[in-house]
Specification:
By secondary structure, the protein is mainly α. It is 76% helix and 0% strand.
Length: 318
């Protein structure tokens, strides 16, 4: 286990390097940059040096791309993700402000998806091809097909028309009003969780059907064990291995969905920061946020891989 864990941790380093290179270079290939936007706000006088040249020099964009990457990466090693082109504030400071909001929304979305998917999938797995099973499978497909940004938009449009109520779009800290804060966060988290639950629901149901046909499950039934014990202790535990894998694969999608949902509901999370940074071509913020997101996803997937050995005693890491 220790050797496997060490190899995986060492593998994270080159993986992050490749991701940062792709993101760092890809941003430079996007048409337009921060200078093109800033120059419209910079007064230009005849005879003065071209403001584009001045701005590129001040921002360090006149240097070759490999030199820019080297400077940025040397700062990352020291814990400095750079400085915003526009606000002149450290990127780390802005991420620290928005990260708790995104973690709160993302964690609640994952919890909602599991609370919805697992009980429904277990019931469909032990009662296959029943009327309820067909209805629940149709609901799962609907959750997958309907995009979260469309549901979020509908939530903002129709409740004010039908019931005279609309979600608040101005941020309320938890300390100021716990109830209002909870409502403001739960709605977008539930919308994100709906989409995630559809995929998890279908996968868990299929795995339950496969596991329930195994010989050791028939043996458990033959021993006269109670249905709840057979399903929870013997069947569900082994059926969750592919489900955990799917949860790890859903994390990048969850991050991307959070960007859209946070923008719709005006939440001050890293999603809103990312959208604004992309619009203004604020390379330091975009690169820093991608590095944080990639690191988080890699470590969570490592934890998921290690948990396989707990779910299935036959799995051994060397």
């Amino acid at each position: 286990m220790h050797a496997y864990l060490l190899r995986r941790l060492l593998l994270i380093i080159p993986t992050l390097l490749i991701i940062t290179v792709i993101v760092f270079a890809g941003l430079r290939f996007v048409p337009g940059d921060a200078v093109d936007i800033m120059v419209t706000l910079t007064p230009y006088k005849s005879g003065d040096e071209d403001p584009r040249v001045v701005l590129r020099r001040e921002l360090g964009l006149d240097l070759p791309i490999h030199v820019q990457y080297g400077r940025w990466m040397s700062g990352v090693v020291r814990g400095d993700l750079g400085t915003s082109f526009w606000s002149k504030l450290p990127v780390t400071q802005q991420i620290v402000i928005g990260l708790p909001v995104s973690l709160e929304v993302g964690s609640l979305a994952l919890v909602f998806s599991l609370l919805i998917a697992l009980p429904v999938a277990i019931y469909s797995g032990i009662r296959p091809d029943s009327v309820t099973d067909h209805v629940l499978r149709a609901v799962a497909i609907a959750f997958i097909c309907v995009p979260s940004f469309w549901i979020g938009t509908m939530v903002l449009i129709y409740p004010p028309i039908w019931w005279g109520w609309a979600p608040r779009l101005s941020w309320i800290p938890f300390a100021a009003n716990p109830v209002a804060h909870t409502i403001m966060v739960v709605i977008p988290a539930f919308i994100l969780g709906m989409w995630l639950s559809g995929i998890t629901m279908r996968l868990t149901r299929n795995m339950m059907l496969e596991v329930l046909r195994q010989d050791y499950i028939r043996t458990a039934w033959a021993k006269g064990l109670r249905e709840r014990l057979v399903i929870v202790r013997h069947a569900l535990k082994n059926a969750l291995i592919p489900v955990l894998t799917m949860v790890g694969l859903q994390l990048p999608v969850l991050v991307g969905g959070a960007v859209v949902v946070e923008s719709i509901f005006n939440l001050p999370g890293v999603g809103g920061i990312m959208v604004q940074a992309m619009e203004k071509r604020d390379y330091a913020i975009v690169s820093g946020l991608n590095l944080i997101a990639a690191t988080f996803i890699l470590f969570v997937n490592l934890v998921i891989d290690i948990s396989y050995a707990w779910l299935d005693p036959r799995i051994r890491y060397r």
